[in-house]
Design brief:
about 200 residues, alpha+beta, tt1808, chain A, six-stranded mixed beta sheet, three-stranded mixed beta sheet, 11 strands, about 25% strand
Length: about 200
């Protein structure tokens, strides 16, 4: 007999439901299957993870990188699995919830989130942007290497764009980078990368 799920789930119900295969997010109580990524999407992720991990080690920062940890919104029944999630391991070492499950709902434990845009670009620009701002995540990147986002977000004509949202007095301030423009990151002020280097996933 197949179990009938309620129309809207709490996060606890969602976690209990999760199957062994596939990746899913919860958006306002609704289950969203995550599309399998294409190779170049993963190339960009791998490139950024390598570069940011090097910066963390070079600067002796207490950060780690995860793509298997849930970011739980305290405002609604939503939970996300970001492409790249920078975590503060010193803070999480004293977090009782983290010790039992890979769930984070504390903004002070999340210096940076990065989403590499795929076909469900609306989630990154609309839903996650608003929830990460409300949660108080200090820095949120949207790496739109295929220029899939709407013109209101990446301009007209549309072109590959990296949108860096930095929290200031509770609201995100936006800086965008294209072509050979150097990325400006509050979390990594010495980062020496251009938009094109990231789009090409090469140094």
């Amino acid at each position: 007999m197949t179990q009938t799920l309620p129309k809207l789930l709490t996060f606890a119900e969602f976690v209990a439901w999760l199957p062994d295969q596939g990746r899913y997010e919860l958006h306002n109580g609704v289950i969203f299957p995550m599309n399998p990524p294409v190779g170049f999407h993963e190339d960009i992720k791998c490139f950024l993870i390598t570069e940011l991990a090097y910066e963390c080690k070079r600067l002796k920062l207490p950060y780690g990188i995860s793509n298997q940890s849930w970011v739980k919104s305290p405002q609604n029944e939503s939970a996300y699995l970001p492409d790249i999630l920078l975590i503060n391991r010193e803070i999480l070492a004293t977090d009782s919830i983290w010790q039992k499950s890979a769930i984070i709902s504390r903004s002070d434990a999340i210096p940076l989130i990065i989403e590499v845009v795929s076909t469900n670009w609306e989630d990154d620009y609309y839903k996650k942007l608003g929830d990460f701002e409300k949660l108080g995540v200090p820095e949120y990147w949207i790496v739109d290497y295929l220029a899939l986002g709407a013109r209101r977000f990446i301009g007209n004509p549309k072109q590959p764009t990296i949108s860096v949202h930095s929290l200031f007095e509770g609201e995100y301030q936006l800086n965008q980078f294209r072509d050979n423009e150097k990325i400006i990151s509050p979390t990594f002020p010495e980062l020496n990368l251009t938009a094109n280097q990231i789009f090409q996933a090469s140094v």
